[in-house]
Amino acid sequence: MKLEQLRLDNSYVRELPADPEQHPGARQIYAACYSHIKPTPVRAPKLLACAHETATLLGLDTDECSTPAFADIFSGNTLLPGMQPYAACYGGHQFGHWAGQLGDGRAINLAEVINPQGQRWTLQLKGAGRTPYSRSADGRAVLRSSVREFLCSEAMHHLGIPTTRALSLIGAGEGVLRDMFYDGHPQIEPAAIVCRVAPSFTRFGNFELFKQRGDRHNLRLLADYTIRNDFPELLSPGETPSKETYLAWFREIVRRTAHMIVHWMRVGFVHGVMNTDNMSILGLTIDYGPYGWLEGYDPSWTPNTTDAQGRRYCFGNQALIGQWNLARLANALLPLVGATEPLQAALHSYRNDYASAYDAMMAAKLGLRTHQGEADDALLAAMHTMLSLTETDYTLFFRALADLPDTQDAEALLACIRPAWYAPQDIQGETRQQILDWLHRYLDRRREDAREPAERHAAMNAINPKYVLRNYLAQQAIDRAQAGDVSMVEQLLELLRHPYDEQPEHAHYAAKRPEWARVKAGCSMLSCSS
Ligand code: AMP
Ligand code: MG
Fold it and tell me: Which atom of ligand 1 is nearest to the CA of 287?
């Protein structure tokens, strides 16, 4: 359908309490879920890229995306009749500490679209200007971080990972001042706006803020609204949520969060800022900031330079942080459930949810039908040790494993894995032997699994992606986009629509990180400045 035919609704605004003031001045906002605020227009909006699948999700004709009206609406320059834009109020724990009120400092929700299937999708502009939650910042987003958010949202979706979606990337035609390295050298950078799409953008932090302020009334209103809209299966028709409902809801959030993080571990994704204001209540990957993709396997790797000291949000810590964040949420929901023990029990189920999903996922990555208890635990532990012997590309290693020949020929085995090594010349002596030992052990286990080879191969390639949004690829696309050429953004979007397919014509995009990218900003180290 056409843009003006979209069926819009504003249930969040209609059903939840608003901040009575209507100006963008920074302030503390109590007893409200959001503030009315309009996007600030930009000088010359220009569509840089758009994801047709997301348009289709909304029921929008894909041709509509290239119209001037589309660029006007999704840059925030015009509102469609019926849109009631707002910024949400939330708080959060940042790097382990309560940070107080945060809120949508540069995100503005336009409206909800009810698509022809009856699904509700919230449209949100990121980088649309100041809101009461902007504090001292400008409410804008730079092109580089917008390209990263746009591409990664869609890449994650096509990898089969729960995520917020991206509809469009629009250049603002104006610049913003950023001190990218926080070293006193600010520069003007091009600004952009991404339209994000999700059933809801509510975070753990929305509930935490009410709890911290002792506002039970609004805590309950927001919880009830969320359950009614996003977890309707927890209520029978006409039923109002009870203590049991809240508990079942929390239990479901635990389950979804565990599954989301298992997916991250599967593909080597490191979120980089797992603060509780960046944790979706729906278990979606949200807020693509200084995230990164594991290149050489290293559980202690973090892409976020702000996190380089503590490594709180490194690859290997994500499961634990998920649980820590859920504990903050449990505490926020305590006034609704009324008792600590059942919440604690639900929280404890995280370990099991995570461990069983993780084991099944790792077994599947290895092409095994099931995870066989302690024997496979030992096989996996040995694999992690083996991967740490020499810098080994996480994505390429698993993709190669599907092609591992069932042979005793050492050279044939090593040749299969070699493309994943960053320093193949180092694979000698003891290291070489340890790698071979593991490969033989793995082959023994594979034989025991007795799966038809073609079936195993297909199953492995359906879970181990060939293409991920490698840090240096995103940076190359950004460098070109900043010079006015968005063709690589389009190429990557197209490539990452089919991350599990061989796509031989694009094989160069599967290559391991080139040496120049090891220390280049944006490629393996990212600042929070965005
Ligand atoms: P993040 O670390 O990106 O999750 O952001 C944490 C908080 O800072 C959120 O409340 C954001 O809305 C806010 N924020 C980040 N960048 C800006 C900006 N350029 N302008 C206004 N608020 C911002
Ligand atoms: Mg955030």
Answer: 4
Residue type, 369: R
Distance from Cα 458 to the centre of ligand 2, integer Å: 37
Average pLDDT, the chain: 97
Closest to 49 measured CA to CA, from 262, 192, 173: 192
- The total number of residues shown for the chain amounts to 530
H or E element: which one contains 195?
strand 187-198
What phi, psi does 318 have (nearest 5°)? -65, -35
Three-state DSSP at 523 gives: coil
Average pLDDT over residues 452-480: 97
Query: Active-site residue numbers?
Result: 277
**Cβ contacts of 391 within 8 Å, gap of 6 or more:** 296, 297, 298, 421, 422, 423
Say what the pLDDT of residue 525 is. Answer: 83
The domains of the chain are located at: 3-201, 205-359, 368-450
Element (H, E) at 473: helix 471-482
pLDDT tens sequence across 323-337? 999 999 999 999 999
Cα of 421 to ligand 1 centre, how many Å? 38
pTM: 0.98
Ion ligand 2: residues, CB < 5 A: 278, 287
Element (H, E) at 255: helix 243-267
Q: Give backbone dihedrals phi and psi of 355, rounded to 5 degrees, phi first.
A: -60, -45
By CB atoms closer than 10 A (0-12, 13-18, 19+), residue 428 is exposed
- Closest to 285 in 3D by CA, of 317, 322, 250, 320: 322
